[in-house]
Write a structure and sequence with these properties.
heterotrimer, A alpha+beta, B alpha/beta, C alpha+beta, B: alpha/beta, Rossmann fold, 10 helices, 19% strand, elongated, disordered N terminus, C: alpha+beta, 7 strands
């Protein structure tokens, strides 16, 4: 009688052991997981804004008319396409900003933001494409304690790229920026 | 017996779990994080390398350099296979193609392979990355037309004068072209215009002869090269924009005919780059023109009507004073003759001679017509009317909507147009407002002739019209300029001023840049240079 | 006997796995962060260099702020001497006979005379943005006394000042015998960027990242 009780207890202990051991194991896995994912996400966003700038500075008015879109729209489309699905949909698009900057010695910094002006995208101005405060959500939410709610707060990442708009006689319409 | 069977299963559970997880979960995820980022890095490096290669080689298209070799050198210098920072990338394969012709293009494409670290566990040993870039360049023929009126001596607000800044930026502009391949010329204008470069033949002929015009030695380092000539420019006098454009057109045609004779064909792009800080205030005209003499019958001039072949032409300029809307002026001044002692350099340094006139490129008038005052008429009542043509035969009346397209910016009198509602009337010969309209129209008419190459029919031996693009820069800091005029003559796309369209889509479209300060001025020149050369990716 | 050896088995496995997983985890994090810094450095060098080669003036604060935005993760600051990254922009030219002529260092026959840098690459422009103590340029550093406020170096200094010599590899100047190389009078635009790396020994030593592009 006493032997059986001992055996049953040892069974339960092994399961509990496993559960206890699994928690730090799982924590390490989830750190690996989240770290890899956020590195990948940030690199992808960086690549996406770079591709968009690279293409955006050479877009001509003819191309914009053929696509039926304005310059800012086409640039944001390129960011979304290059971001491997991270920035899909209207909510994803809301993180993308396109700024136009003109050289202007009347400004104290020598540069003025002309994104809201109709000729903001004149050749020679700088186009800056950015993804601002994009939340890279945790793949595996963090459980600090059984008594606290699960921590799903994301890390905020940003990515920027900029270049000078190429000279052209065929300038597209700027659209609504930033 | 349940627990007996399960005992062996409890051993090694974490290890078994891990063994399953590694290929299914861990490696792909870490592979995504690490390997994908390595690929992004190498792709970014390759992209930077081809961009550098295309732009670096693109600058050298149409020079003596072997573009393919230079592009390969740049590419290898930027993407150093085997060195640290390149993550073991190997097998860099460049493909460089250069296409020649009037528009030269270099396209640099490169692929490389990146060894993967984690994904090779799953069998994927390497990944390819690729990048491509293109640069284009065209052989150019550019006539730089520079306003050196008196207002250019004003301060630029940053410790220098506008003319000093302009000289610096114009010299920088010439450096962006390639000596020996591109052709550059210079026209400077005050009360009238002078050819600043090339300095010979001098006097520069006013017909499209096959000599003179912009040439490829503009940066030769000699004391009369274009850079030095620009440095000789000093400011003073009025703004004879129409005269300047007319001479610039002649200069381009001379170079065109010269190259056509030498090479059998001429496919360069032609451009006129006009810089001004004001509004046209001088009309250069031919008073006693055979078919349209405006010398009044009551004047005591000996040669009131010239012969059909100009024998005693009275060329001169009518100057308006102040800023639009003009209400006063200095009258008519016969332009100074050119002779061997007053060289091109002398005129560059002396914008206003002692008669108050600018410089002239017409043959000397001998004898000075008696009774037609050689120094000038301050009163225009000796004229019967405002002439219908300028010195070269361009109309002084409106071309289409004409002066209604005038739009002034920064005008000190608060005016927005040179036009106040009163139409052009040639009989109002003493009314400087009317001469202001004539001056405006002269520029418009000349620019129209340039964009349509109206003189093509008169160039015997020429096989096709010359496409010429006009680029304009308007500096607004010196009493304002007329952006309506400058946009119209550049024929900018979508041009519309005062709700009137000023764009013709069958003609070359140029660029108009408004500059209000020194930095914007520098930027304007560099934007126009790269637009002419079409250096792009 | 069997019972005691079974209990605690999971912990032993965990200990063994931890020995593997923790270094893996820390390695991934530090390596990944460093790689990300490297990616940003490459893109910063490319963007800065391309804009520089298209005549954007980086002595103006506004343009430097654009670079600071691109390099924000790297800690590029527009205040000289602060921040954890640096961007070095240079123009280099090869001093040949025409360069000596421009400076007036030729004799009556047009041969170089007093043109001490003849045959060398020299700097004609140098602009530094950010913290110059992070890393110095691979090409060399011209003395700050000869660099003017808009970044340019006078032609006389270029052809005579020995401290202005640059060390350029990979681009050959013009060789009239073989008809190859960079023609006379052309400048090469060089952009270099460097940032402080992520420091977590022994996985990452905190080496500075570096990228260089010739335009």
């Amino acid at each position: 009688m006493g032997t059986r009780r001992l055996q049953r207890r040892s069974t339960g202990v092994a399961v509990v052991e496993f559960s206890l051991a699994f928690i730090p194991y799982f924590a390490m896995l989830s750190v690996l997981c989240d770290a890899s994912w956020s590195i990948f996400a940030k690199a992808t966003l960086q690549f996406a804004v770079r591709s968009a700038v690279r293409q955006g500075i050479t877009i001509t008015g003819t191309q914009a008319t053929a696509a039926g879109e304005t310059l800012t729209q086409m640039v944001k489309d390129t960011v979304q396409h290059s971001a491997l699905g991270l920035l899909n949909g209207t909510s994803g698009r809301a993180y993308i900003q396109v700024h136009y900057l003109a050289q202007d010695s009347s400004s104290s910094t020598g540069v003025t933001d002309v994104s809201t002006q109709a000729n903001g995208n004149s050749p020679g101005n700088i186009m800056e494409v950015s993804v601002n405060s994009y939340p890279v959500g945790a793949l595996l939410p963090r459980i600090y304690s059984l008594f606290m709610p699960v921590d799903k707060s994301p890390a905020m990442v940003s990515a920027f790229a900029a270049d000078r708009i190429e000279p052209s006689n065929d300038v597209p319409s700027i659209g609504s920026a930033p | 017996m349940f627990w007996k069977k399960s005992k062996p299963g409890q051993r090694g559970s974490l290890l078994i779990l891990t063994t399953i997880m590694v290929p299914v979960f861990l490696v792909p995820l870490i592979g995504l994080g690490i390997d994908a980022t390595v690929c992004y890095i190498v792709q970014a490096e390759l992209s930077a390398a081809v961009d550098g290669s295309a732009l670096g080689a693109g600058r050298l298209l149409s020079t003596s350099a072997n573009t393919t070799d230079i592009a390969t050198e740049f590419l290898n210098a930027n993407f150093r296979v085997g060195q640290g920072g390149f993550w073991g990338a190997y097998s860099l394969v460049p493909t460089i193609s250069v296409s020649t012709g009037t528009t030269k293009t270099v396209t640099v494409t490169a692929t490389a392979s990146v060894p993967l670290i984690f994904m090779r566990i799953l069998g994927q040993k390497s990944a390819p990355v690729a990048a491509t870039a293109t640069a284009t360049r065209r052989d150019a023929r550019v006539e730089l037309v520079i306003d050196r009126s008196g207002s250019m001596n004003n301060s630029d607000g940053e410790g220098s004068t506008v003319i000093q800044d302009l000289v610096t930026y114009a010299q920088g502009f010439t450096e962006q072209f390639t000596e020996g391949y591109d052709e550059l010329g210079l026209v400077a204008f005050s009360g009238s215009a002078v050819v600043g470069y090339p300095t010979t033949p001098w006097p520069a002929s006013l017909s499209a002869t096959a000599s003179g015009g912009p040439d490829t030695s503009f940066y030769s380092g000699g004391t009369t090269d274009m850079v030095h000539q620009i440095g000789r420019i000093t400011a003073g006098g009025a703004t004879a924009m129409g005269d300047a454009l007319a001479i610039a057109y002649v200069e381009l045609q001379k170079a065109h005919m010269r190259d056509l004779a030498a090479n059998g064909a001429d496919t360069r792009t032609n451009a006129i780059v006009l810089f001004t800080d004001g509004v046209p205030s001088s009309v250069v005209t031919y008073l006693n023109r055979n078919s349209n003499s405006v010398i009044s019958g009551t004047s005591s001039c000996t040669y009131p009507v010239d012969t059909a072949t100009p024998t005693n032409p009275i060329y001169g300029a009518v100057f308006m004073d102040g800023s639009p809307i003009y209400s006063s002026g200095s009258g008519f001044y016969q332009l100074k003759s050119i002779n061997g002692s007053n060289t091109s350099q002398w005129y560059m340094a002396n914008p206003v001679d002692n008669a108050g006139a600018g410089t002239d490129t017409s043959p000397p008038t001998t004898p000075s017509p008696a009774g037609c005052k050689s120094s000038g008429w301050s009163s225009l009542s000796n004229l019967s009317k405002i002439p219908s043509y300028d010195k070269y035969g361009y109309g002084l009346g409106p071309n289409g909507s004409g002066y209604q397209l005038s739009a002034l910016v920064n005008n000190p009198n608060g005016k927005t147009s040179v036009y106040n509602g009163t139409a052009f009337n040639t009989s109002s010969k003493t009314n400087y407002y009317q001469w202001g309209l004539a001056a405006w129209d002269e520029v418009d008419q000349v620019a129209q002739a340039i964009r349509t190459d109206a003189n093509y029919a008169n160039r015997s031996g020429d096989t096709s019209p010359m496409p010429i693009t006009i680029y304009t820069v308007g500096y607004t800091g010196n009493g304002g300029t007329d952006y309506g005029l400058l946009e119209k003559i550049a024929n900018i796309q979508g041009c519309s001023v005062n709700s009137i369209s000023c764009y013709t889509d069958t003609q070359q479209a140029g660029i108009y840049i408004q500059a209000s300060n020194k930095t914007a001025l520098a930027n304007a020149f560099s934007v126009i240079a790269t637009a002419i050369l079409r250096l792009s990716h | 006997m069997r019972r005691t050896s079974r209990s605690g088995g999971a912990y032993i496995e965990l200990a063994l796995l931890t020995l593997v997983l923790v270094p893996l985890m820390l390695g991934v994090i530090s390596c990944g962060l460093n790689m990300h810094l490297q990616l940003q450095t490459v893109q910063l060098a490319r963007d800065a260099g391309h804009m520089f080669a298209e005549y954007i003036d980086f002595t103006l604060l506004g343009n430097q702020q654009v670079l600071a935005a691109i390099g924000n993760t790297l800690g590029l600051s527009t205040t000289a001497g602060s921040g954890t990254a640096v961007v070095i922009l240079s123009n280099v030219r090869y001093v040949d006979v025409s360069a000596c002529t421009l400076a007036g260092k030729v004799d009556a026959h047009g041969n170089p005379s007093g043109c001490t840098n003849y045959g060398n690459w020299v700097f004609s422009t140098r602009i530094v943005i950010g913290n110059s103590s992070i890393r110095s340029s691979n090409l060399g550093t011209p003395p700050t006394s000869i660099v003017t406020s808009n970044g340019t170096i006078a032609i006389t200094d270029q052809v005579t000042n020995a401290n202005d010599v640059a060390s350029v590899t990979g681009i050959n100047p013009w060789n009239s015998t073989t008809d190859t190389g960079l023609p006379s009078g052309q400048v090469v635009y060089v952009a270099e960027a460097s940032a402080k790396g992520f420091h977590m020994p022994p996985f990452s030593a905190g080496t500075n990242t570096y990228a260089q592009v010739y335009f």
